[in-house]
Amino acid sequence: MSDDSGITGHTRSVVVTTITCLAGIAAGVVSAMYVGTDVAAAESTTLVLVMGAFVLVQYPLYKVIGVGDFGVKDNLYVAFLTFTLWFISYTVLATSTVQLGV
Which residues cross the membrane (predicted)? Predict the structure, then answer.
């Protein structure tokens, strides 16, 4: 199963999963740096905006790589996996009392 970009189905899946996971972790770290890790910061809606930005930034990257033909299921996968990794990484940083600052 190969498309015009020469990326097979399995390679496409690995690329999308890797980028999505790294984007989720990066979103968690950026959220911790930009918003903070204290209780007041954890209640901020800016955290969700940072995570949403990381979801949206992935799509132009996928087009550049040549993996840009996404259906509804693929879009839900990217959003869910990015959210999950963001949530886990931010929660670990917030509960470990790490101080990340700009």
Answer: 14-35, 47-65, 77-98
